[in-house]
Amino acid sequence: MLIAQSGGPTMVINQSLIGAIKEAGRHPAIRNIYGSLHGIQGILDQDFIDLSRESDSTLEAVAVTPSSMLGSVRKKPTARDCQSMFTIMKRYDIRYFFYIGGNDSAETTLIINEEAKRSHYDFRCYHICKTIDNDLRENDHTPGFGSGARFVALAFMGDNLDNRALPGVKINIVMGRHAGFLTAASALARQYPDDGPHLIYLPERSFSMNRFVADVKRVVHQHGRCVVAVSEGIADHRGKPILPENGGRVDSHGNVQLSGTGALGDILAAEIEEKTKIQRIRADTFGYLQRSFVGIYSEVDAREAREAGRKAVQFAVNGSHHGSVAIKRKPGKKYQVTYRRVPLKNVAKETRHMPDAFIADGGNDVTPAFIRYATPLVGKLPKVGRFRNYRVPPAQ
Amino acid sequence: MLIAQSGGPTMVINQSLIGAIKEAGRHPAIRNIYGSLHGIQGILDQDFIDLSRESDSTLEAVAVTPSSMLGSVRKKPTARDCQSMFTIMKRYDIRYFFYIGGNDSAETTLIINEEAKRSHYDFRCYHICKTIDNDLRENDHTPGFGSGARFVALAFMGDNLDNRALPGVKINIVMGRHAGFLTAASALARQYPDDGPHLIYLPERSFSMNRFVADVKRVVHQHGRCVVAVSEGIADHRGKPILPENGGRVDSHGNVQLSGTGALGDILAAEIEEKTKIQRIRADTFGYLQRSFVGIYSEVDAREAREAGRKAVQFAVNGSHHGSVAIKRKPGKKYQVTYRRVPLKNVAKETRHMPDAFIADGGNDVTPAFIRYATPLVGKLPKVGRFRNYRVPPAQ
Predict the structure, then answer these.
(1) Class (C level, CATH) for A146-295+353-378
(2) What three-state secondary structure class fits A223?
(3) According to the model, what pLDDT value does residue B247 have?
């Protein structure tokens, strides 16, 4: 068996890796457990490590460590890459392949599987879902999202308090290329009626600069301050991104670079500065902290990520030759999930968006339905203390 | 007694507030405990709350909540402001005043105290130290620093793993206007020999763009990647800030806005992009998260912040009429501190810088002496897991 990781890291992607490794150890069909370093690039380079030799304490230490421990890559294989990989994999008698990643990685897995069928290479090929963006089709939610959402919620809880202490406009840019789930998770920070974020802009709704300025002015008029959550992927009504496309820097899946720059926040802050008389306008971009912070993760998310890795191995050994592990939520009041094998093509490439039922009518907030959806995924959040503020009557 | 908070929030500034409130409750000389909202602005506006009416459970909930719960302000009082404040304070018979803040707040406390003496207003006036920048004179370190440093260390631990998974150049901008302590704390993230941050730039050393590019190229050559910690306050050999002064936006203490914009990171990333052939260059600015994140704090820092608040009340009731509470480290191997009253003028206005002994000769790293200094302040950090990476021998 060969396992690898791909795409953006998450806080719990190693849980899936360790879940798969430990499960594989129970199946006699799998004699060796190899890890490929930096995804499919490691296959092409024959850059393999022997994971069955790692001690249990190392495995468990890696499980709670964020970011892809096998290294990652953003690479879409060509038919020729696939042939090269099969040549190499045959040498090692690799008959099980697991790829932990998002929709691009599912596409990669699908391409490899299709090419393998065409070449009559007998092997089993599985995608294990992960993405903080929570935008995989077929999934109620994806491993990585709950932890990313927890980071975002904690960050907004603190930042709302900061903004309350030194009032002004604070704009925070949150990850999420096409799906607003992670930005929406900022709403979980609210504990008191006047808590921010007061405005939430998602990529599922077109962004109007004029509307944004009017929204901010209204909130500042009401609360004397305004905390704003903005998805990095917001675009205008023509679909043109608000953040200029940075010289067209794209990866091999055609994605434009959005993270790792503070430009969007600065553009929005400058707009408020120019169009209003509001003082103290600031913007922060949460950046990579929201996917790779040490020590912050959702316990539910960590558990599910581990289980997704285990299930992939079970499905591969006992079931179909290929597929993706999807998380489904059981109906009912109590939060419960099941893991299903779904066809690779159902998860590959295209992304899922926030359902309309999760987006408030004004297009600048989420609904209670989203809060109900997301709450069990992030785990219990700390309670923010607040004085009762007993006013001292004016002295004469 | 009247207490207030001023300047930038920290994760533990409310510990000092609650420490002072609870200590004040034990002294018969203090009959009422009022809080002024938004620092001295709240005095001028007679915006007071009665803190003695808050329940113990509220006090303890506020203590573990980040950011200034009484609200903050950045305002330097004029002599006229002081007279207005005395008129108001006399009406409430306020005879004890405590101001929790950094060097600017110490200056404010000094000004108020000098004006009070001049006006023969009999009252006791204390500054309680706090600042994540750790730049207060007379102090071994300041409450707030340990928690901010812990956040920075955890962030770099995760970001180093992220950069290891998807190699490239990652530049992280850390708070610290004139003092590099917080940026230096990024070094605490290192657990393995190849861990980042690989380069650390502090405001105590002049920043050369050419030198920076050469440093990054060298590290990328060695490690195939590079994580960089940069203080927001870096300036060239003429003292000109690398970050343009943002239209000269300044507060009433004359400080230029540095945080709340991603511009510095983007400038540095663009320079690497332009001058090298390195791929995948990203920049994040940690921004306000590093001072107001919910749930991350150093236990040592929280305890000391609480104690600083308590000591201020004890000094004011039993000792001199004015002063600032400073933290001194006892000599010896075991980490221990004492709290001393120091004159306000010794802490006011001017800041402390990183001692030369903490800065590596090249000016792009810290020394082991800094690590020894900072380690007890942040508390125990989680251990990062890592595979032993047993290489699979090449197959034929």
Answers:
(1) alpha beta
(2) helix
(3) 40
